[in-house]
Amino acid sequence: MTIQAYDDSNVFAKILRGEIPSQRVYEDEHVVAFMDVMPQGTGHTLVVPKAPSRNLLDADPAIFGPLYTVVQKIARATKKAFAADGVTVMQFNEPASGQTVFHLHVHVLPRFEGIPLKPHSGAMEKPEVLAANAEKIRVALKDA
């Protein structure tokens, strides 16, 4: 298997460096979580390690503990913040799987009975909606 080089001009690398704004809900020394600007559902959050890697296939295994500890925190917080019935956690590797941004990231989506996910259409959510949803998650994290 050939592993491609990490491209530090990807959108998540730019978000991590503060070059592109984001609605952050959590940050520690290893991981950042922020709102997906093209959400597939209410509260769709991305959890991103700070260490550069294209995806799970080339990542240093040492990042998975801190990454998935935060994924769990965010999953619990989003479920509480939006009174969701469940939570979907997704992670894609390479274009054939649906990966479109080549920096390892995990999608956390609160889910509601009978409500399907929206397609990943490229339509951006209104900034004020993202800000309000981010605040709900931050409050739920504080209450945890």
Q: State the name of the first-level CATH class.
A: Alpha Beta
Output the strand order for the largest sheet.
1-2-3-5-4
Output the CATH topology: HIT family, subunit A
The fourth-level CATH homologous superfamily is: HIT-like
Mean pLDDT figure:
95
Cα distance, first to last residue? 42 Å
Helix and strand run: HEEEHEEH
Low-confidence stretches: none
| CA-based gyration radius | 15 Å
Biggest β-sheet, characterized?
A: 5 strands, antiparallel
Helical content stands at 25-40%
**If classified by CATH, what would the architecture be?**
2-Layer Sandwich
**Large-scale geometry:** globular
How many domain regions? 1
- Strand content range: 15-25%
Number of helices: 3
Structural class by secondary-structure content: alpha+beta
- Number of DSSP strand runs: 5
Describe it.
This protein is α+β, with helices and mostly antiparallel strands and 144 residues long. The chain has one domain: HIT-like (HIT family, subunit A, 2-Layer Sandwich), CATH 3.30.428. The protein has three helices and five strands. It has a five-stranded antiparallel sheet. Helix 2 packs across helix 3.
List keywords for this structure.
144 residues, alpha+beta, HIT family, subunit A, five-stranded antiparallel beta sheet, 3 helices, 17% strand
Describe the protein's topology.
Blueprint: H1 11-16, E1 24-27, E2 31-35, E3 45-49, H2 64-81, E4 86-90, E5 106-111, H3 127-143
Antiparallel strand pairs: 1-2, 2-3, 3-5, 4-5
